[in-house]
Amino acid sequence: MIASPVAGSLAMDILEEINQIRIIDPHSHIPPEAAAAKSIDDLLSYHYYTELAHSLGMPKECLGLDYPARDRCREVLGYVCRMDNTVQYSWLLWILKTTLGYTKNAIEPGDADMLFDASLKIYQAPGWERQSLELGPIDQVFLTNDFDDPLTGFDTDRFVPCLRTDEMVFHWQKAGVKERLWRRTGVEVVDATSLGKALRELFQFFLNRGARACAISLPPTFHAQPVEGADLTMELLKGGPSVGRSQGIFWEIARCCAEFGLPFDLMFGVNRNVFPKGVHQGCDLFDQRLSLIQLAPIFNAFPSVKFPVSVLSSAQNSELVAYSWIFPNVIASGHWWYANIPGLIEQDLRARLHGIPREKILGYYSDMYKLEFGPPKYLMFKQVLARVLAQDYVAPGAMTRNQAVELARDLLRNNPARIFPAIR
Amino acid sequence: MIASPVAGSLAMDILEEINQIRIIDPHSHIPPEAAAAKSIDDLLSYHYYTELAHSLGMPKECLGLDYPARDRCREVLGYVCRMDNTVQYSWLLWILKTTLGYTKNAIEPGDADMLFDASLKIYQAPGWERQSLELGPIDQVFLTNDFDDPLTGFDTDRFVPCLRTDEMVFHWQKAGVKERLWRRTGVEVVDATSLGKALRELFQFFLNRGARACAISLPPTFHAQPVEGADLTMELLKGGPSVGRSQGIFWEIARCCAEFGLPFDLMFGVNRNVFPKGVHQGCDLFDQRLSLIQLAPIFNAFPSVKFPVSVLSSAQNSELVAYSWIFPNVIASGHWWYANIPGLIEQDLRARLHGIPREKILGYYSDMYKLEFGPPKYLMFKQVLARVLAQDYVAPGAMTRNQAVELARDLLRNNPARIFPAIR
Amino acid sequence: MIASPVAGSLAMDILEEINQIRIIDPHSHIPPEAAAAKSIDDLLSYHYYTELAHSLGMPKECLGLDYPARDRCREVLGYVCRMDNTVQYSWLLWILKTTLGYTKNAIEPGDADMLFDASLKIYQAPGWERQSLELGPIDQVFLTNDFDDPLTGFDTDRFVPCLRTDEMVFHWQKAGVKERLWRRTGVEVVDATSLGKALRELFQFFLNRGARACAISLPPTFHAQPVEGADLTMELLKGGPSVGRSQGIFWEIARCCAEFGLPFDLMFGVNRNVFPKGVHQGCDLFDQRLSLIQLAPIFNAFPSVKFPVSVLSSAQNSELVAYSWIFPNVIASGHWWYANIPGLIEQDLRARLHGIPREKILGYYSDMYKLEFGPPKYLMFKQVLARVLAQDYVAPGAMTRNQAVELARDLLRNNPARIFPAIR
Question: Do the Cβ atoms of A357 and B55 come within 8 Å?
Fold first, then answer.
């Protein structure tokens, strides 16, 4: 894998020990009913590959639902071979070598059929889901559940429900949202009071089924502000999108988090649909002109709510370090999306480790859509972590190797377990 | 200490020579009448520890003035042990080992009483202040003096007065400010003219007592603009806070700096009271959405005034490098507050060394409240500096080891001495 | 040179191979009729040296056209000696050693006359231009041509024309601009339609003479928006500067790029004349408060146009990586101006290599005004590149040494050749 420690080095020794830690992954997009890939098509459909391939000129047609999967793999793989300098490529190569017995050091497009066949055989064999997790090794994976997800049919101890709230906050006016909330909660929202009632029903429903976090992604223009009572009622009755309504629903959800003891993951900075003709999930980018001070009102208003915060750009990392160091309820969380590459992780992680108490750092989350990506994405993070621990702590004598491994254990397991306790 | 060079390395050899340089520290908050700690309580009361402990959940009660010092140390130390990954912890551990004979590699909370007793004995012994400075070794420490500080009772050669102007610029309307200025200067400010007269009396007073700098911290929203004459008079007579008044007083202070030859330290970017329930001095954060272009008018208007500029975030460092490289009167100054951690210092320092002429870099200032912190904070900086000098200059043959040490001497001693000359 | 790889290291071995790559330099300010220096005066007149010398206190008088060149060199060199920590100094020292036989490791001001004499002899000898390029080795250098440049009298295969459009977009109202466009194209612009006609004539003229790119630098406040038809006509008839007119002309130029197949270099972020009393070309700085989202409309509107994008600050690099990864027509381009120092290049380059497919990275351009600077500026980049390739790819086994060198070849030669094809 690119940017990994060199064999025989202190960092590699540390990495070998870190690799034993059983991971709790506090954020993913895993569909629990189809958590693992059924074929290499499920891997190549990960938006990283489709968007990078599209960026290299791949037409979008092959991404249609009715396009033959085998042909799609041939098509996408032809482009993937041309991104062998990227870390995304190195995740895929790692998966091919580790799970499909691929032996080459570079992916060759002519191997598409062979890889497709191998993946059908191996990924559809019984027990693959568990084997896939063991490559982490990952014990628990947090999900991203729509507010009306029935949360049934899966082991909520392995796949931990998490209430995603973007739709209610930013798309309240869209067809069906209110109705779906009514069907889930039995409460028809007609004003601020009934909104509060519906949300509490919803929270109780999620908690009863093992939810351990609430989550939202916020655009860079978002400012947290209370909009309550009659003001919120008026907002709820309006048509069209409304900043005030988003602020008000967001605020009420934070209040529910306080009442029910749920942490509230804030993923701050994404602009949706900047590239409307992009591939699915490859349309969103960001605007670096934002500040965590926009969220300070919610940090101040709800001191009992833990807010794990993610940022999209390394340029925001200085703020994230400072806000986590000052606010008792702000936690620096993972390396999100466009910031999830070794060159940025290394500088961001060093600053976090040097400036934030260890308990307040969620080292990493996979953000994955299929389980196979958990192990190589975590491995990338662990490689960077091992190098930083070796250089900054163990080599200068500030920590023993064991102490450094325990610090890694906090980041990868103990902190997710403690910050997101089972409440039920 | 974390992130330090490895023993036996070229960087460590360079560090050993750099450690002999007698430092001039161009910015601190030392109270000259109680410059050194009287006990470990004075160390643990440093806002870094109280705010990080508070961030870990420590209630604020123990920080009250009437809380027993020994109990407070027990309390705070219990939290400090949980931040052993931070550089702030490594400063404290260094002090305990170097000054109190502590022999462990990690601070144990059970040692609180022992450390408290040892600190009373050692810190209250005669000569401790001087011994503490010799650990740097630090020859001179610049202070931060209120505008009505009498500047008496201390050796102004060791502790150099510096006129802090935030109160006049940003809190003119607050009770007592005008009166205190009148008492110090004998001038009652009723308009722009009398303001100019009062400020000149004030500057003369400070210069007579050895002041070598003027200083201010500026919020990220600040734009330097002249507000003068009748406009300024009108602003001075207004109640409440006023942007125009702040701009006008700031501009007039810069004019006085030009007339009296005082450099004007600008510390740009702090938002006050973002976390109102924080501990003392732990309420302030920042907003990265700012640009040094907001200060360009003052750089242009007063070319004879040297402006050492500090920024709060690594994201602003690119601008600081460019503005120092272009404006003859802009000097890149230290690594301020939230940017004062090795992972950020390293990338910021490298860019400064590669792009700014050596004379225009103030390497570091301690920002300390008690002398004991000077040596470990400077040591942290010197460790990073030694590593950068070794990797970027000496190893590739661009400088000899001696030349690199002379570069360090410029940053740590010669530049502060030259940029802030004694004027009296 | 500062920050270069250490002799005998893997990075140095890679560098030696990379040094054989014959470079295509996709952006410079070379005047083709006087491409190489005639004396060391032409080197010391490079704005890097005049602005850094001015920043150190050099009066501007010596920069006058009638000031004796030999005296100017003495004067400037006296200041240059005081910036021996900077990378700009290391470029110059490299040139003196490599081309003038200078043998010292530090430039001594007393050598000014000797260096001046040597430079006259060597730089004015026949064949110097070609020898100078061979030090790169550089095969092709892209120019920056005014829109009414006759493009005659030089070898357009060696010096590739590039249509610079700043004047038309931002200074349309200035005396002579419309007239010069009329003289070049035979079209008098009286409305949007005739503007379109004139631009197409202009593009055809440039293409006929071998142009392979269109280029512009944009201020941080610029937002790309279509202003067309009657609206644009109205803007064209207005006096004074106008945001809408700039947007409209820019949009029409992008449309011409689409029609003619020319890539459009966007250099985003410069504020002109921030320091009006600066030296020539040393008055411009930047404002980090900008986002590539401001350019998204043009990326979306013209998907067939390749947009190589440069940014001024390392703080914008995260955005550049993300936008290049998502938009098929956005290409990360070089390390521009204030971002062109090793400490920043290293972190920016690592992120680009880890996150952008190799075909979409233009590794470097010289931005030079005289050919002598191409080799040391490229060498600086190649040194950083070799170190990143060694550490992140070859040492961990992700690439062989040969593969790493081929990646470098893409960045330095193949990508410029493919992204800017000869169209004629």
Answer: yes
